[in-house]
Amino acid sequence: MPTVDVDQRRVVGARVKAKAVHVTSESEAARRYGQLSKTKMVFGTVLSVDTAVNPTTNRSTTTVVAEYDFGGACVRQSPNEPTGTYNDDNPTGTNNHNASVASPGAFAGNNQGAVNVYPVAPMLDPRPVRQNCHGTEWRESDPNTLLEVNGTVPHRSWSVRTTIAGETIGPGDDIQQRLSRLDYFLLMFPPSQLTLMHLLMNEEIQKINTLTPATHQAMTKGELLKFFGVIILCTKFEFGNRASLWSRTAKFKYIPAPCFGDTRMSRTRFDLLFRCLRFSYQPAFRPIGMAHETFRWMLVDDVVDSFNKMKPEAGCEVQHAADGESGVILRLTLVKTELEAREDDGLTLGTRVAKYLVEPWARTDRIVCGDSFFASVATAKELKSMGLRFICVVKNSSSHYPMTWLLSLELSNRGDHKGLVHLDNDGNPDMMAFVWVDRERRYFISNCSSLVEGDPHVRNRWRQGDDMEAETEREELTVPTPKVCNIYYDTCAAIDQNNRHRQDNLQIERKIETKNWATRVGTTILGMCIVDAWLVYKGATGTSETQSEFYSWLAEELLDNSYDKGPIRRSTGSVTEASPPQHLFDSRTGAGRSGIQAHLTPTKRKRKVKGVIMQKQFYQAYAMMSHWTPRLSNRKCGFATQNMAGTVLLSIWLHAIPLNTH
């Protein structure tokens, strides 16, 4: 009888091998083995072998279950077919002998013999110590990756310059709320832009006056701020027709009417200002280059369909630069066409845009964190020449970047990382390219910081465990994170958070609809200024106010602004703990806010003349904090000065209201 070789794959306890993608998901294999995920062989042990015969076809099916070890306490079982046996005399030769989990599968046949298995050729590590990528040499040097590339960068806190020369406001510098919300908005809204809008909108009003018999009054800067307040107020209501906001008749029983007429801006005036709204100079007719027939059909056929699927709201793409700590938008640029953006400077588009956005902060040794649009070795070199640092995630293969070497690395556990360094002419590391594993592989380019272990990333997850009947338990997952990744992920979401504040909380673009492209872009930038005012106000005052409450208070201050009257000097004095909060007073006039601090207290006492004759006028008590002074109610506006706790003199406008005597 001929000798039949025993199929080791069908022997319980035998060592077998299979491809990683046959054992686990492709994403898991790619996370661990990079570009070797489809060819990587993992090894396991046969747990059970079951053979079943189909009575109809008389063919047998053998199911082999094996357990595979991927490393990092990761063990799985699955009934996938192993491709061969493991030979202890021929190791794989890879830099990671731990493997992943899966199980061998089913074999169909007449079961009359086994398959001969031959030894597997050893897998050698193909990665050299040095990599030359388009003339840029990268070296594998673990000690250099633990050093601060280009030196350390000290932490700097954000600050905002005020209108007073030499004065700045930073985190926690305005706990007493010396500045109002309107003041913070004016700090974020450029004064030159307010002047430009005032001139352009008055020009549009003048044009309308020449075409219609009606004469519309010119707009002031204070009225423009009031117009902004009405726009913010519109975001607080749900409406189908904007004219319904001025209605005094409630449509529903328990929902009051908006009554926008109380803002002292009529619907006709608001519609006129919105019609004349201009944020920048716009030509009366479309330029010839933008009205070409070819461009029109290219827009309709090639762009709109795919663009609307990705960006459902009409608009344009804007590239920002924001402060990583406060989230304030610092600079922006609109995305142009390829012909407009093309320049003969030898740089890529991402590098040119990055240089433009951070140009005002050149030579300040600040760290710039960008997304994959700006990721390139050229950007890191250009920003270094400008005196700036750079950290960025690389998603696609970039010129001069050692992506092939990093893709060939095998990293088993979350938090594993490996990198290469680039040395300058003096032999010191000036750039670093590395990979870090979390849920997936992340590739970075940096010219600062190091791969020293930083603060770990902690996630809370619910896990059921091995028992399917057991209840879920809360587990804390800790992912080791290098220092350079801490810096990047602490700041990279600042722009996205600012956009969410504007689009989901403020919602100017959704509530104030327009078909004019320039108006849409302008209102978007206006929303950025409002959100920036909130971020600075929150950081400087440490307020517990919600974002929605801030927008409501800001709308009120914009509607009640006294910008056209000019500032009124406050009395000098030192602020003590007994003084009232400064946010209760208008920062420009020093007057108390409507309904707060200064008010009239009704009384039934009537005025007497020489203690005998009763007059029709009632006495009124002027109340402020714990101090009050009797005042006579009349039809004029009085000016009162009250000594607050003996330390502060504030000028308060008291509006006296005539009382009904019958």
Structure commentary:
- The chain is an alpha+beta fold and 662 residues long.
- It folds into four domains: 8-125, no CATH class; 160-282 and 543-559, no CATH class; 347-492, no CATH class; 567-655, no CATH class.
- Helix content is 27%, strand content 23%.
- It has 17 helices and 25 strands.
- Strands 1, 2, 3, 4, 5 and 6 form a six-stranded antiparallel sheet that branches.
- A hairpin with a 3-residue loop joins β16 and β17.
- α4 packs across α16 (517-541), α10 packs parallel to α11 (377-385) and α14 (494-506) packs across α16 (517-541).
- It is elongated.
- The N and C termini lie far apart (128 Å).
**What count of helical segments does DSSP give?**
17
What is the helix fraction of residues, given as a range? 25-40%
Strand-residue proportion: 15-25%
Question: Could you report the average pLDDT, rounded to the nearest whole number?
Answer: 78
Question: Which key terms come to mind for this protein?
Answer:
662 residues; alpha+beta; 4 domains; six-stranded antiparallel sheet; five-stranded mixed sheet; 23% strand; elongated
Q: What's the helix and strand layout?
A:
Elements: E1 15-19, H1 20-23, H2 26-33, E2 41-54, E3 59-69, E4 75-78, E5 84-85, E6 106-109, E7 130-133, E8 136-139, H3 142-145, E9 160-161, E10 168-169, H4 181-188, H5 191-211, H6 221-234, H7 267-275, H8 293-310, E11 318-322, E12 329-334, H9 338-341, H10 349-358, E13 367-370, H11 377-385, E14 389-394, H12 403-407, E15 417-423, E16 429-437, E17 441-446, E18 457-463, E19 473-479, H13 483-491, H14 494-506, H15 508-511, H16 517-541, H17 547-559, E20 599-601, E21 606-609, E22 613-624, E23 627-632, E24 637-644, E25 648-655
Parallel strand pairs: 13-14
Antiparallel strand pairs: 1-2, 1-5, 2-3, 3-4, 3-6, 7-8, 9-10, 11-12, 14-17, 15-16, 16-17, 18-19, 20-22, 21-22, 22-23, 24-25
Helix pairs in contact: 4-16, 6-17, 10-11, 14-16
Protein name: Transposase IS4
Region (Disordered): 74-98
Biased composition (Polar residues): 77-98
